[in-house]
Design goal:
The structure holds two protein chains of two kinds. By secondary structure, chain A is mostly helical. Chain A is about 70% helix and about 0% strand. The model of chain A is unreliable at about 75-90 and about 100-110 (pLDDT under 50). The chains are: A mainly alpha, B mainly alpha.
Chain lengths: ~240, ~200
């Protein structure tokens, strides 16, 4: 064979490719290539593993502790009695309550008004959950593994319901004078709509396209930041005495 | 490719977790979290990011348990998921840094910035493992997220190029080219001149 290229030598070093015996034979007969391969081997052999920070036996327990609250969402999603429309419907009623409270602060149409502080807190919890669910649905579609087309009908149904809730949250954000929040929700809604109304089976290219779309607008990052802000605000409200629900 | 331990015990535990037993999933997390962390750290070289990757990987695994093939090893499966999450993490970091000097930023964890060698290597200096390590670290910092992921999986994890392609959602050719580019960056950082090759 002719002199192997550097790329071929790299493959040979890693034991890749079917041409290795031919490369091996060439190296045995060509001093220059043999030297080139020795240099490559010396370079790559010098790349050794960095020390890894130690993690003790308790690491798994800590990971589980942090993970557990996030896993509860799955059981909610999969439980036979709870459907995706339920959060959307609940969101609708809470948004309605929120807006009514804002616009009819006293003597409004509600016969049993929720205290304003509690209402705001519940509203924040709902928004936080909505953002987390939206992120999960988008990631579920975008990060589905494998080279085969994936059936995304279940995610589409979820996205459809999230769109309905999102619209209400977006409306309330705008009315509450939060254009930044409304803008993030607007971006999120567009992507959810794309998923909801896209093909029910998505191949790797469609999934990669969705990933690129999410990355281009940093949508998931913005959603996470908003979720974190909302959760943090809710925690602050919970810390105020007399406001726990 | 490195395999994770515990696969014999995992079969039943995975089945229980798939049936909705949260405690079974907890056992899988506790059994595999350290190995997942090691992989995540090798790829991200950042402790905080690696812990985030561990969380994301187990979360993704939990959500995908229905798609887990019973005859597969949970350890290998979570390992591939973690590699993919680490790649995502590196890409996210890359995007955050795209308007900044990559060396200046990442050197917060790696000491003062180094200049790449412009001429012949200094073998006496390179003989010191610390200097080699610093140069390799610099090369890793100058790799794209894709190059770094592919190189780590090939060089440290012993994953085949075909498998790297599957994990990173690339065709084998793209995975191969990423490894090539990464190796060239390592060699440049070490001061070799890979262009000096006999002609055919």
């Amino acid at each position: 064979m002719s002199h192997p290229s550097e790329d071929e030598l790299i493959l040979h070093y890693y034991g890749e490719g079917g041409a290795s015996p031919a490369v091996e034979a060439h190296l045995a007969s060509c001093a220059a290539c043999s030297q080139a391969f020795a240099d490559l081997r010396a370079d790559l052999s010098s790349v050794t593993e960095e020390p890894i920070p130690a993690r003790g036996e308790e690491h798994g327990e800590k990971v589980w502790r942090d993970l557990q609250p996030r896993l509860r969402l799955r059981s909610v999603r999969r439980g036979p009695a709870v459907r995706w429309w339920a959060p959307a419907a609940l969101a609708a009623s809470l948004v309605a309550a929120f807006l009514v409270g804002r616009h009819f602060p006293a003597g409004g149409p509600s016969s049993a008004p929720i205290p304003e502080h509690a209402r705001d807190r519940i509203f924040l919890v709902m928004v936080g959950d909505h953002l987390e669910r939206s992120e999960m649905v988008l990631l579920e579609v975008a990060n589905a593994e494998g080279s085969e087309p994936v059936d995304v009908r279940s995610a589409q149904e979820s996205a459809e319901n999230l769109v309905a809730a999102n619209r209400l949250f977006r409306l309330s954000a705008r009315r509450a004078g939060e254009p930044g929040v409304a803008s993030v929700l607007d971006e999120l809604e567009r992507v959810l709509l794309e998923v909801a109304h896209g093909p029910s089976t998505q191949g790797p290219e469609a999934r990669a396209q969705l990933r690129r779309r999410l990355e281009a607008g940093d949508i998931l990052f913005k959603v996470r930041v908003l979720e974190s802000t909302v959760r943090s605000k809710e925690k602050q409200m919970a810390a105020v005495p007399g406001t726990t629900s | 490719m490195k395999r994770m331990a515990g696969s014999d015990d995992d079969t039943e535990t995975v089945a229980q977790a798939r049936a909705g037993d949260a405690d079974a999933f907890r056992r899988l997390v506790e059994r595999h979290s350290r190995n997942v962390f090691h992989l995540a750290y090798r790829m991200t070289r950042n402790e905080h990011d690696a812990e985030d990757v561990v969380q994301e990987a187990f979360l993704k695994a939990y959500r995908s348990l229905d798609r887990f093939e019973e005859r597969a090893h949970f350890g290998s499966w979570i390992y591939r998921i973690a590699a993919n999450c680490a790649y995502d993490s590196l890409r996210a970091r890359e995007r955050r840094q795209e308007n900044a000097d990559p060396v200046a930023i990442d050197d917060t964890n790696n000491g003062p910035a180094l200049e790449l060698p412009s001429g012949e290597p200094a073998p006496d200096r390179l003989a010191f493992g610390g200097e080699v390590r610093r140069r390799v670290s610099l090369a890793m910092l100058r790799m794209s997220a894709l190059e770094r992921s592919a190189f780590t999986l090939r060089h440290f994890e012993g994953m085949s190029i075909e498998e790297i392609g599957r994990v990173l959602d690339l065709d084998a050719s793209a995975a191969k080219q990423s490894v090539f580019r990464a190796v060239r960056k390592v060699r440049e950082a070490l001061g070799r001149d890979p262009g000096l090759r006999p002609t055919t």
